[in-house]
Design a protein that fits this description.
alpha/beta, Sirtuin_cat_small_dom_sf, NAD-dependent protein deacylase, protein-succinyllysine desuccinylase activity, SIR2/SIRT2 'Small Domain', six-stranded parallel beta sheet, three-stranded antiparallel beta sheet, Rossmann fold, 9 helices, binds ligand BJW, 33% helix, Sirtuin_class_III
């Protein structure tokens, strides 16, 4: 690889798998016999809000009992020690990158620990359930929904992500299947913009052919090894 200064890292569910957080598409990828594509949509929420809220209440409760793993810690160390630009774009709605100590994190699919009021459009920190339709802390309306990005909705931070991709020398994709756009297209965007590209995943992703290099194995092994290598060359 040439001289690397600016790095964009995309993470997905695989980075949190070894912390005990289920991925979406491994081992069937089903929840209550629904495909994620059938549950994580505004239409599903309109059709059966209790089902969707129960799904997110259960996951919001679970993530608060999980701990960051060696991959989150390695990325936090890279964030702290890398002298160039770095952006961790995560598709994950857990807060394990932050709890490991990373600060340059962008949650493009939202965050479990936020609730979004559809009445006043304010997002508030939220750790409890939403099923019982609590009032919005800002306006008092019972109009809170999970602050996550469902299919058909615009992911967060796209301008910032594309600005970082434009400046990137290296794009690294970690623990994501490459099944969901626009994130799955970032590798091609990065290549077109001149960055080197690297995949770190348990197995070849759907987009593995687009990467210059791929290393396959559990995130808790391949990510710390890659971070050590990169920091040693800085
Ligand atoms: C390990 C491991 C270990 C396991 N170590 N690895 C046709 C073509 C192109 C696009 C579309 C299309 N039809 C519709 C679309 C658009 C649609 C889309 O992509 N649909 C696909 C089904 C095709 N996308 C959207 O609607 C998005 N919005 C949008 O496009 O807006 C318009 C727009 C236009 C122009 C520019 C920008 C935007 C919104 C997508 C929202 C996705 N939301 C979800 C739910 C979030 C809330 C929640 O958590 O419930 O996000 S769906 C779900 O999938 C979640 C994830 O973030 C996302 C990606 O999943 P991820 O992380 O890749 O997990 P898995 O399970 O798929 O993979 C895990 C990987 O880890 C596997 O590879 C394992 O091998 C690996 N692994 N253990 C390392 N220990």
């Amino acid at each position: 690889m040439n001289q690397i200064r600016n790095i964009v890292i995309l993470t997905g569910a695989g980075v949190s798998a070894e912390s005990g957080i289920d991925t979406f598409r491994d081992g069937g990828g089903l929840w209550e016999k629904h495909r994620v594509e059938d549950v994580a949509t505004p239409e599903a929420f309109a059709r059966d809000p209790e089902l969707v809220l129960r799904f997110y209440d259960m996951r919001r409760e679970a993530i608060q009992t999980r701990q960051p793993n060696a991959a989150h810690h390695a990325l936090a160390r890279l964030d702290a020690e890398w002298r160039g630009e770095l952006l961790i774009v995560t598709q994950n709605v857990d807060d394990l990158h932050e709890r490991a100590g990373a600060s340059r994190v962008l949650h493009m699919h939202g965050e479990h620990l936020n609730a979004w009021c559809t009445a006043c459009d304010v997002r508030s920190p939220w750790t409890g359930p939403l099923l019982d339709r609590p009032p919005c802390p800002e306006c008092g309306e019972a109009a809170l929904r999970p602050d996550v990005v469902w299919f058909g909705e615009m992911p967060y931070g796209m301008e910032e992500i594309f600005a970082a991709l434009r400046d990137a020398d290296l794009f690294v994709s970690i623990g994501t299947s490459g099944a969901v756009y626009p994130a799955a297209g970032f590798v091609r965007n990065a290549r077109d913009l001149g960055a080197a590209t690297l995949e770190l995943n348990l197995e070849p992703s759907q987009g593995t052919g687009w990467f210059d290099e791929a290393r396959h194995g559990p995130a808790t092994e391949v990510v710390p090894a890659w971070v050590d290598e990169l920091l040693a060359r800085q």
